[in-house]
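Field: COMPLEX_INPUT
Field: COMPONENT_COUNT = two
Field: RESIDUE_TOTAL = 568
Field: MODE = joint
Values follow.
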Amino acid sequence: MSSAVAEAPLPKPSLIQSLSVARSESVDERAERAQIDHSMRGPVLLFIGAAIAWLLIGSLLALVAALKFNLPNFLSDGAWLTFGRVRPAHLNAVAYGWAAQVGAAVALWMMARLSRVAARHGGLLYVACGVYNFGVLIGIAGILSGHSTSVEWLEFPRYASIVLFAGFSLIGIWSVIMFRFRRTGHVYVSMWYILAAFVWFPWLYASANLIIFYLPVQAAVQGPVNWWYGHSFLGLYFTPIGLGAAYYFIPKVIGRPVHSYYLSILGFWSLALFYPWIGMQHLIGGPFPAWMISVSIVASFMMVVPVITTSINHHFTMKGYFDALRWSPTLRFVVFGALAYTLASVQGSLMAVRSINEITHFTHYTVGHAHLGLYGFFSMTMFGAVYYIVPRLVDWEWPSSTLIRWHFWLSGIGVIGMFSVLTFAGIVQGLALNDAKISFLASTNFTLPFLWLRSLSGLAMTAGHVAFAASFVLVLLRSGARQAQPTLLGSAEIDPTPA
Amino acid sequence: MPMDITTYLFIASAIVAALGLALGALFYAARTANLSNFEAGSAVIFDEREPIGQPTDAFPGTPGVFRSR
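Field: COMPLEX_OUTPUT
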């Protein structure tokens, strides 16, 4: 990266100019890539840093919650560390503090790159980051102090959810401005995904909060609203950002366009068409109209269309380039995430089948599925994206490939272990719960050894996060000697000939 | 407790807004030729500085150094 280019002065339009109907062409100079990165440096690093802090906090909360399964008296002297508070605090810390925030950081950076313009109104992003994190902070504090709403995925107290919504809305406004002043005529598929996610999340969050807390629908209807939001949060925010990142980073890293762009567009629009109908399958067996649940089951199966198109695309884009997984940290994490996406999506469709759902619902199986999706797919993809983005922002290479290797293996083995253990334990637990001859206590006792393994898996993932955080701090401090070569994961002979 | 008219209006508005936005985006995509000439669109993330064929998981300012067999 050329620092001379990076330091070049950028035209600074006012916020009013950017929001006005009349476009100001004078500020539409096409920016060099380094200039774009320079303009995004502060906001994106701030978002990533805050996200990593929440990842560590969320991981510690997860460990405390997991250990309480086997050691119920562990840290139970004060009410604020009881399971009923620690568990939702963990969920919200990793979902809103880590995942949603690092997703926003990666999406913001991609948005600037794909728009081919230097960031306008970077100050807006600083404000957004501050407001958003203040919302998460008072939300987590509210849950731990006993003010949780008790609505899953929406546990933040009302005073926190408003702040969080305001912070995220600023991110959305900034993205629309960038889209409006982009220099590229074609809208790349990643940009479709990002824009959609930035519109869908505020819409979902506002709608669910208003319908459940501010203009409450009848109590029985709040369940469907809750699960419509809970599932859509995963499918209409995390999924599009994760897929948008995969569609950007895999081709960029290996230097090869996506295998079939037609399939990628088909995948996006079919996701937009089918996913908003999903969520009610969580209520199979509940006191709801059968048609409502059936619609979600059908939509879950229609999701096979975007999943298959995406999987085929990723596989054939990588075909002939799998060797690159040995050398590229970014590719290693992102391809892991893409594989996990396929697996989690197919598993999700199958979980919507009534006969399967009757066994897996209310068991550890669902928790395993959630970790495969939010961690195996989304978080691993985001780790890879961060490994690509940060050196370009700080103009310094990651100081230790050993830390990256540890991070990958600890996180990878951790999430595979957690998924496997909870899936097996959940199936047996579900079969036991459906057997009238087996007592509830016996079905629960059976899972105890597996819950130890769950904690062990979580410990491995947490150790991976510590390695990730250490790498991030070291690269910010520009630790070590300046490197002329990228941090590759090995030193074997490299073949310079085209594939 | 039955829902009041405000709740119904809000839900209807939210549905109309979401549907309108989706249709608007689809119309925009078609009008701006984003639903045609697909394969050319796949190359927009590459340019003269990071062309097709060049790996980019490298330190900024240095060329990619790996190539799959």
